[in-house]
Amino acid sequence: MSAITDALFSSTLATNLLARTTFPSQTDLHCAVSGGADSLALLLLAVRSEARVTAWHVDHGLRPESLHDAAYVEDICKELGVAYELRSVEVAPGANLEARARDARYAVLPADVLIGHTADDQAETVLINLLRGSGTAGLAGMRRVDRPLLGIRRSETHALCAELGVTPAHDSMNDDLRFQRVRIRKEVVPLLVDIAKRDVVDVLARQAAILRDDDDVLEELAAMIDPTDARAISAAPLPLARRAIRQWLSNPKPPDLATVERVLAVARGEANACDVGGGRSVRRSRQRLELHVVGMR
Fold it and tell me: Taking the model in full, what pTM does it have?
């Protein structure tokens, strides 16, 4: 075993952090590894779990140091004895760079890839979704199914790397205040901590967990309603009716509130049909709601 592996398996900190992770039970784990402290901690703890691990690194080609990061992650993987996969994507500069880079990244990663988001990322996500006007699903934040480190703080991932002598790569984009998440991290969260005189990350992460439980119950209740039954949708409590319609129309992506309200108007007989985006419309016929695609009958 390498020096890093020896230190990893003898580390009390690694043992404690592993107890607070939620790795899937399968023996093969796929980890997205950028080279930052969080993703390195994910990789290290996955190795500590004694699963077979594959590290996936995506080079977006957006920074001069990206080739160095890819080589660095590969070297770490060799030292840990884990498989390494490199993927390159092209993301043109411009508006919505973060979102477009994320979409490009996920398009080349395995469906079951694990992401090294921490409790701090969870708090930032909740705040971002709050600014977007999200409902309970957005305010519930990210789910642990593919993010095993949501119970761990960012400071702890840095501490683990430091203890094991692993120096994280630095992504200069994480310092760029043009990006909303960076401003949330560097300006909004510290301000909230100062105002609240307490650790708001723990508060926001705890609230997200509560809202996730509430959201799950509401989703189950909504799934019991036939969204194509105009009478059932009209008679259902409004929060459940909205969710039933959203579940029905969520492919390829969930409809916004305005679209859901238009469908409700059709269900109530206030309109005969409405546009729901993507070249689709919903029409009412004999108390049934029908989804139509342009060019199809």
Answer: 0.86
Domains of the chain: 3-118+153-175 (3.40.50.620), 224-293 (no CATH)
Provide the 3-class DSSP secondary structure of residue 256: coil
Nearest 5°: the CA angle 238, 140, 117 is 155
Give the distance between the most distant pair of CA atoms in the chain: 72
What are the residues facing 288 on neighbouring strands? 229, 285
DSSP assignment string, 64-129: TTHHHHHHHHHHHHHHHT-EEEEEE----SSTTHHHHHHHHHHHHS-TT-B----HHHHHHHHHHH
Residue 156 backbone dihedrals phi, psi, to 5 degrees: -75, -35
Query: Looking at residue 1, what is its pLDDT?
Result: 65
Residue 291: pLDDT above 70? yes
| Cα 195 to Cα 33: distance, rounded to the nearest angstrom | 35
Give backbone dihedrals phi and psi of 101, rounded to 5 degrees, phi first. Answer: -65, -40
Poorest-pLDDT segment among 66-70, 198-202, 275-279: 66-70
Pairing of strands 288-293, 28-32: unpaired
Q: Are 119 and 152 in contact (CB under 8 A)?
A: yes
Q: Which residue has the tokens 């100062």?
A: 194
The Cα 185–Cα 120 span in angstroms is: 8
Express each pLDDT in 206-252 by its tens digit: 999 999 999 999 999 999 999 999 999 999 999 999 999 999 999 88
Which pLDDT belongs to residue 234? 97
